[in-house]
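Today's session is about reading a structure prediction critically. Students often jump straight to the picture, but the first step is always the sequence itself: look for stretches that repeat, for charged clusters, for runs of hydrophobic residues. Only then move on to the predicted structure, which in these notes is written as discrete structure tokens rather than atom positions. Here is the chain we will use throughout the hour.
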Amino acid sequence: MLRVSIGAFRVEAGGIVALADLTTIATRCALTGGATWLDIFVLCPGIHLQQRAAELANQGELPPTAAMTSGYVFRTENQAMVGYLQRTGQAGHLSDAHVTLAKHEGRQNPFSAMSTIGVLSSLLYLAAVALTITTIVVMAVLFREWWTVGILLILCLARAMNTFVIRQRTVADWRGAPEEGYGDLIILLSQDRWVRLRGLVDDLKAVTSGQWMRDMTPIQSFISAAATLLVYGTAALSSNASVFGNVVLMVLLFTETALLAFSNQLADGLLLHDRVVRIEGEPKKYSRRLEMAKELINETGRDDWAVGLGMILPSEAKGVYPRFDPLVVPRRN
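Below is the predicted structure for this chain, in token form.
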């Protein structure tokens, strides 16, 4: 057994760091559309906030949306989808997003999540997983720091309980009636951020409609509350660990927070209900929203959706009309 001396330096409650209200874990949950069992080994402050991922994802915004192929106007209800578009959108720009089917289908499949967010983002996430496992093994085998090992295992248990509840809550039970065809949506976010979302109609409905997370049942609420109490309990128990054990605990939490935050920032897509949403190309800047509206009206050949969104006046509407093709010259009789 190894002994480490840190002199007069004292840290008696390193576990209190786990109580910080950081949203890093909740953001990860929104990016991957749920939780995988590997998440158990990613320990960051804010474990007790994971069940609030839905309300934290979109900050209460449900942006107006129009189908430019049919003229229907509605709201994008899926909080994870709205949160992703908020993070990727730019004021005064139109972003071009596309929805496709995930390569690895399956409810919260870890391989699908990693293939969606990109290689570098996945490596940072896996580094956090490996760091937790390595720390537990080293602290148990080499240093015999059982209080520190126990605290880490309790945090993993809290993560496992939250992961179980999240996986139950993110089962999609309503996506509307199946439809065929290709869809083209315009989404008007706050702060003048605009997104054009395209894909198969069923894929678009899967990421924009219905509930991302269902409300918790009484049993799920109990499990979530128990997990929260476990996190708070680690703050009390950490005073029993040695100074070295508390320092290791704090360094682990700080390091994994940084790894997960960078992983979230580098993620280049959103995985949601077995669909992948990605922003393609650079956002296009417009000096006026009306300029963007007129360009899209000319491209789609109809303006009823623009009237419904309040982008043009009803008196200016012309209805549905053939799209102008500059390569076709009309014949004159």
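Discussion point for the tutorial: Residues 146-169 form the longest helix (24 residues).
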